[in-house]
Amino acid sequence: MKPPIGRETTLCMSLSGRPGHFGSRFHNRLYELMGLDYVYKAFITTDLPAAIGGIRALGIRGCAVSMPFKEAVIPLLDGLEASAAAIHSVNTVVNEAGRLTGYNTDYIAIRLLLERHGIDPRTPFLLRGSGGMAKAVVAALRDAGFADGTLVARNEPAGRALAESHGYGWRPEIGEAQAPLLINVTPLGMEGPEADALAFPAPQIAACAIAFDVVALPSATPFLRAAETLGKRLITGHEVVVLQALEQFVLYTGRIPGEDQVAEAAAFART
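Given the sequence above, the corresponding structure tokens read:
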């Protein structure tokens, strides 16, 4: 049984420009299931340096970091773990006695998913996006041995730099480009003003074999629904968010939950 909240309770948190409820519900449910004296709370801030200073000063154990802070947080930390240093993007901060270290569990989650789904690294891919999450996905693809890829990004400086630094091609628009593996790493299809947008045009979806969307809410984006209708293999953002949150949980607590506990927490977090 989880102890009641008291002065010994360990606090974990998240910082985001647009916080959702998945992380709070997922972590807190696992604390309950495993009887851990922890609590997790999401926060919004307009003063990132002060927020990070608070983590250090108050002994907050861990912090998830979302847009728009994944790169801005780096100068405020004491060090980076290899997954974050390689892509210069942080989504997790761990506090060890006042020393703050940045990790990137998005990268770890993508690597695990590529392995679990058994995708041949010889598969050419077309990836849309160039932001912080795109950095994690592109680095994971490169490190998994994917050599034939093209990034689509209207932001030429960011898109071209990200592509060329990993040995991939870049183009500003999809145009006639096609690939067996399509990966969306943009907000297209996410809840909000772009909820009905297709991440890829219908001809590209029809020509692909695997549709991968990192958007977690909703997990069935217009892109994935269109691909499913055509019988394509799917990799969902829900899979990504569960794996990356699980990696955070282990970093914060040092405990590894059972598969049934993870499944229950993930289902609870989606309600």
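The chain has two domains: 10-103+239-270, 108-235. Try to locate this feature in the token string yourself.
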